[in-house]
Amino acid sequence: MNAQAAASTAASTAQPDFDAIIIGAGIAGLYQLHNLRALGLTVKVYETGTDVGGTWYWNRYPGARFDSESYTYGYAFSKELLDEWNWVEHFEAQPNTLRYLNHVADKFDLRKDIQFESRVDAARYDEANGHWIVTLASGEAATATFLITALGPLSAYTLPRIPGVDSFRGEACHTARWPKTPVSFAGKRVAVIGTGATGIQTITEVAKTAAHLTVFQRTANYAAPLHNRPITPEEMAEIKASYPAIFARCRETPGCFIHMTDPRGTFEVSPEEREAFWEKLYSEPGFGIWQANFRDMLKDPAANDIASAFLKKKIRERVKDPAIAEKLIPKNHGFGTRRVPLESGYFEVYNQPNVRLIDLHETPIERITPEGVKTSAEDLAFDMIIYATGFDAVTGGFDRVDIRGRDGQTLKAKWADGPKTFLGLQSAGFPNLLTIVGPHNAAARCNIPRCIEQNVEWVTDMIRHMRQHNLTHIEATAEAEDHWTSEINELAKDMLYTLVDSWMTGVNRNVEGKDVRRVLQYQGGAPAYRDHCDAVAADGYRGFILR
Ligand code: NA7
Questions:
Q1: Is the CB of 105 under 6 A from ligand 1?
Q2: Distance from the alpha carbon of residue 195 to the mean position of ligand 1, in angstroms
Q3: What per-residue confidence (pLDDT) applies to 14?
Q4: For the chain, which terminal residue's Cβ has fewer other Cβ atoms within 10 angstroms, N or C?
Q5: Exposed, middle or buried, 235 (CB in 10 Å: 0-12/13-18/19+)?
Q6: Residue 187 CA, ligand 1 centroid: distance in Å
Q7: Strand-strand pairing, 474-476 and 544-546
Q8: pLDDT > 90: what percent of the chain?
Q9: What's residue 267's pLDDT?
Q10: What is the reported pLDDT for 6?
Q11: How high is the mean pLDDT of the chain?
């Protein structure tokens, strides 16, 4: 339907085009579509990309892979799907993950309700008719009773605010817009700007074949070994037999990873025992060193200091040149207070003769030039610049859509000083807008498909409840929203990560207005979050106005 037709539909009839519109065909959007279709709803999904996959569609950069164990990451809802899909690595690489999501889309015939190459520009709540009018970049528009955002917390990628970014004459690319065609680094002088989880994966891969690689590091990050390896057919058979236990375990842990926080305090054990424990975690696959560390590691500065010292020691052991090792050691934050990148030989890259590290605190970038990068110390020429400069996290995806609720209020303005939500799923003044994996939700710090599943199933149950009771309107009360927002802030108070700039605190100086730390996530852990949501539902959706 075109814009005019939609506008006239909206003006003349209360009957919307669809029961629900979902924005995004990533892991969340696909599962929400599948669930709502099962309820008998008419659903349309709008997706910017040319195919399904979301994060795994866009982030095709070299070295992109899971930090979650593969077998904890797939959808859990279908035994048939679990039985037929074979993961090939303990931490699957992007191409196979994208293959998996395509398999899911085919198996459940999801594509027929997805419109690709369709970026949603605006969504306006039409109060008179009680539905949402959604407008695409193309001008096309449609209406729906429910608007469900499945935008992803890390979808709004950001280029650095450095003068001259557009002037470079060589190849340039942000990791989140990596081309579908193969990219060769052989014989090239490559620059990577950014050393977060993405930069670290990219650098490790590019260093293998580039003639020369220059890494521009602003903030050093602690990173720990991934210890990836292939999954044998025998292991896969065992994994399939263990799925119920694996998912039960993920339900118990704060981040829905397979790793559970150690119940001991750092100083309750002897220094020898502590060291042995950390050595064990460092030698094991995955996020154990972050997620299964001592219970006080992310709260008590003294506990965090000595955990950080262990990680610093590891960097010094692995990097041959002590001066480079010192540059790679974080100075302004403790271990685990930023998202921990998992690596596969990252620190050893700096022992290679074809790799150079530039510390931007010593010699900042002044501008990107047609030939390369000009720092305060020198002019450097490159064939390729890779921007691993991250995302306008969690709220960035929302800011890029002009979402207007009752009385024309914009969500962007409402959230300008930080998000205000109830359960991270609804915001007062925006009826029937449901924000899967939105801010204030447990999902952005989670083994994300597990939290997506909870969000989607909760929203599905809520819509089922509404249909059973002939209700068409749901909106959080201002009181429920205030209460939830205060609780979010209170829970984050004693967490060390709130004192540190990172995407987890919503800081991105490449974006106007995003230079202040904010609490974006529920910090009580996924099990407590789930209990909150379940209690609200059991109490007849307490905190919501239902009509
Ligand atoms: P991150 O973790 O936000 O990392 C972005 C990196 O880019 C980080 O090192 C930034 O330095 C750097 N950056 C950003 N802007 C600039 C400018 N202007 N100049 C120099 N360097 C800059 O994003 P990722 O994509 O690595 O990871 C995001 C998540 O995706 C990750 O945590 C996983 O959950 C998956 P800074 O630290 O800001 O000094």
A1: no
A2: 6
A3: 75
A4: C
A5: middle
A6: 27
A7: antiparallel
A8: 97
A9: 98
A10: 45
A11: 96
If one residue of 59, 159, 216, 503 were mutated to test the ligand 1 pocket, choosing by the most ligand atoms within 8 A of its CB, it would be 503
10-14, 215-219, 266-270, 323-327, range with the lowest pLDDT: 10-14
**pLDDT tops 60 at residue 64:** yes
Is the dihedral angle over the CA atoms 258, 263, 266, 271 positive or is it negative? negative
Rounded-to-10 torsion of CA 89, 92, 96, 98: 160
* Beta strand 224-225 pairing with 114-115: unpaired
What would the two tokens of residue 280 be?
């064990």
Question: Which has the closest alpha carbon to 303: 339, 338, 253, 264?
Answer: 264
H helices present in 284-385, as ranges? 288-291, 301-318, 322-328
CA gap 184, 186 in Å, rounded: 6
Tell me the mean pLDDT in the region 250-277: 98
Q: What is the DSSP code (8-state) at residue 504? A: G
Predicted confidence at residue 299, as pLDDT, reads 97
Beta bridge partners of 507: none
Structure tokens at 333: 């934050």
d(CA 543, CA 547): 13
* Å from CA of 504 to ligand 1 middle: 11
Percentages (nearest 5) of helix, strand, coil residues in the chain: 40, 20, 45
Q: Is the shortest distance between the CB of 448 and ligand 1 below 6 Å?
A: no
| Residues 498, 502, 506, 512, CA torsion sign | positive
Does 176 contact ligand 1 (Cβ within 6 A)?
no
Distance (Å, whole) CA 91 – CA 93:
7
Closest residue CA from atom 35 of ligand 1: 197
Model's pTM, two decimal places? Answer: 0.96
Residue in the block written with tokens 């800011």: 399
Mean predicted confidence (pLDDT) in 404-413: 97
The encoded tokens of residue 62 equal: 């070299």
Four-residue CA torsion sign, 464, 470, 475, 477: negative
Length, in residues, of the chain: 547
- Looking at residue 4, what is its pLDDT? 41
Atom of ligand 1 nearest to the CA of 390: 23
> Average pLDDT of 216-233?
98
Pocket test for ligand 1, best of 200, 215, 218 (most atoms within 8 A of CB): 218
